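Progress report, Aim 2. The chain analyzed during this reporting quarter is listed below.
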Amino acid sequence: MKNLSFKNICRIVPARMLKGAMSALIILAMICNLAGCIFDNDKDDYSKVDNGAPCPAFTVRDFNGYYHTVPDETKPSLIFFFNTECCDCVRQFPIIQRLYEAYQNKIDVIGVSPCNASYKIKEFIAEHHYSFPIAEGTYKTIYDSFATAMIPRVYFVKDGIIQARNEFDNVISYDEAEGIIESLFDKTKQ
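Predicted structure tokens for the chain:
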């Protein structure tokens, strides 16, 4: 039996097979990185803030150069944490877009990615023609103040308090989100 050093393996195995193996390792590393973004630990309760809790404050700049501060003192906010490579997040995007189009003058909508590079987000926005404000850049530290794992996450904030959120990584329906938003305005009248 021959010595199986790296040097000997390179002599025995054709270069194209090594190239294929290297590609497989790179893909595996990317999958592990994505999983690490979504599932940072194995805790049962992934949320750090729940309904009725103060909203962690942050400011981000969107791709149009506008700054968004949450919580917004003048109107309710909808915060959408996403990853453009997450199937449920991709399903959530058109719902957030519809909500933005219906309520853009009444609520502040901001999308925030804890793990996508700016160029990937920008390509995704352009490809799908989304117009709601999306933070330029990766904001894992902001996400970490809300949760330890699981996306998409959608938070509804009013008067600095988390009023509602989706459960774990479930896609929130348009009707459910609209009901939550309308209830935020009903609370204003009281």
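Confidence is low (pLDDT under 50) at residues 31-44. Residues 82 and 139 are 11 Å apart (CA to CA). These observations will guide the mutagenesis work planned for the next reporting period.
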